[in-house]
Amino acid sequence: MERIHDGPMAGRTVLVTGATSGIGRATALGLATMGADVALTGRDRGRTEDAAREIRAAGGMKVEVFVADLSCQAQVRRLASEVLDDLPRIDVLVNNAGGYWDTRHVTVDGLERTFAVNHLAPFLLTKLLLDRLERSAPARVVTVSSNAHTTGRIDFDDLQGELSYQLAKRMHRSAVTANALHPGVVRTSFGAEDPARIQRLLVPLLRPVMKSPAQGAATSIHLASTPELEQVSGRYFANRRPTRSSPRSYDQAVATRLWEASADLVGLTASPRV
Fold this sequence. Notes:
Layout: E1 13-16, H1 22-32, E2 37-42, H2 45-57, E3 63-67, H3 73-86, E4 92-95, H4 113-135, E5 139-144, H5 167-170, E6 176-182, H6 197-206, H7 213-216, H8 218-225, E7 236-238, E8 241-243, H9 252-265
Parallel strand pairs: 1-2, 1-4, 2-3, 4-5, 5-6, 6-7
Antiparallel strand pairs: 7-8
């Protein structure tokens, strides 16, 4: 396969977490075929290297591999250190890694696993890479979320797993944008390690009408690459279009409180930016 020397993402470096399968793998592949240098993260080195081989075979110019279990904060910190050592610039960070466990699993840090992987890991990784993103600006942070957030609420006495960033508000003076998205209902292995009973019953029935991983990655790729979105920040997208997230997600007092609680749980001082 001929290597891709140009394209709309040529010269840009994109880091995609959870890129071994599903939406993350399709996102990395799509951006690489647009000319981007891509860096992939995954829990398993063999699966991550396999994804890298597929992207190289499709013409990707430069593909790097990082291995880390994002449920462990020490590994998130090690990942950030390795990324900063190896990548002189980061133009786009795609926080794609996520998971769902129906029963309560506790991480090595003593945290509920779904909350740790879906919220605290991207929170910590983004904070640790923020200086590099700012120095690479104009840069973008793209976070894969879900419209499932519309049914959730945050119980600060028992934090679980709702993702609610105020990164865009805190970065409004910089050239780093931050947007979140709903990828749609996609045929992936999300939640397959510990599925709920309703998931076991419904997924086989819905699978024929679910999006493919490539279709699910379309909005991630759009937010990462579209020139017209260079200065768009703090928005929520579905089907590549901006839309409204849940009314509760616009509560600034709740967002600030969650930010401060998250900073405490990952051992960081809450940012003074407002």
